[in-house]
Specification:
Order of helices and strands: HHHHHHEHEEEEEHEEEEHE
Helix content: 25-40%
Shape: elongated
Mean pLDDT: 77
Radius of gyration: 27 Å
Low-confidence stretches: 209-222
CATH class of the largest domain: Alpha Beta
Strand order of the largest sheet: 10-9-8-7-11
Number of domains: 3
Distance between the termini: 71 Å
Largest sheet: 5 strands, antiparallel
Structural class: alpha+beta
């Protein structure tokens, strides 16, 4: 539509109409980065949509105008609460609102939704899955530029929204390994888990055979204390190696090991299950 070369192949009245539409798209494109309410107002003004509705003989015209007015009010409220989100953020939120408002109270079912879509809702039991670094917080929020801290804070607020949806019980899960871009990778628990007071947490780990091992607290600190730079260790999958570095503490304790068979790996101490062996 916006290509003059493509439009040149069209003849007659359609060519003029298409050129006018392309011009409209060009003008509206400038509002893509503007606040949502301002962008919607520009669309309404450029298209004369309200005037068209008022001159329409359609029986639904009045209700459609009311819907547009409600959309503008919602956009203004969104802009006040999300000053930097703009039109893209508003469209994302609107797209995530599906059939949630139509749920019947007391109906026995599981509702699957995003954290964004859960705003304003409450449930007796809430599961939040995938609490791992690069998922929550998302990898795109973890850059080294000046905006990265703001990105992490926004992810932290999103985590808070999800957690506070639970009325009685909250279950937070993360995987030890995950298929990531076609490869199995060791996953690091989300930094947000370490920010939750320990007295509110009961840890549960599913072992490979399906049995559940309930832990009073993470054992990573104890396992890390048995390791040291230069220690010779054995891993169930990677075999023998030598510890080159230790970083972090608690559930975020990591160990760098140079394995004989696969080279250097960075592992989470609490999941690596390394065994110190004699030299």
């Amino acid at each position: 539509v916006r290509s003059e070369e493509a439009r040149s192949e069209i003849r007659g009245r359609a060519k003029k109409s298409l050129a006018a539409f392309a011009g409209l798209m060009e003008r509206l494109a400038d509002f893509a980065s503007r606040p949502a309410a301002e962008a919607i107002g520009a669309v309404l003004e450029e298209t004369d949509y309200i005037d068209w509705l008022r001159s329409s003989t359609d029986n639904d015209a009045e209700s459609r105008e009311e819907n547009v007015e409600e959309l503008v009010v919602h956009a203004e409220a969104f802009d006040r609460e999300n000053a930097d989100a703009g039109l893209p953020g508003f469209l994302q939120e609107v797209a995530l609102v599906s059939d949630i408002d139509g749920m019947e109270e007391g109906e026995a079912k599981v509702t699957l939704m995003t954290l964004h879509a859960s705003k304003g809702l409450e449930f007796p039991v809430v599961f939040i899955a995938g609490l791992e670094e690069e998922l929550l917080p998302h990898a795109l929020s973890m850059g080294e530029d000046e905006g990265s801290e703001a990105g992490i804070e926004e992810e932290r607020r999103l985590m808070y929204v999800g957690m506070t949806r639970a009325e009685d019980r909250l279950i937070l899960t993360h995987a030890q390994t995950r298929m990531h871009f076609g490869e199995t990778s060791w996953r690091e628990p989300s930094r947000f888990l370490a920010e939750i007071p320990k007295e509110f947490i009961e840890h549960s780990v599913d072992s490979p055979d399906g049995e559940e091992d309930v832990l009073g607290e993470f054992e990573a600190a104890g396992e890390a204390s048995a390791l040291g730079v230069g220690s010779r260790v054995e891993h169930d999958h990677f075999g023998y190696g030598v510890v080159e570095a230790l970083q972090g503490a608690g559930i975020n304790a990591r160990v760098t090991v140079r394995f004989t068979s696969v080279g250097t790996k960075i592992l989470l101490v609490q999941y690596a299950k390394l065994r110190v062996v004699n030299p």
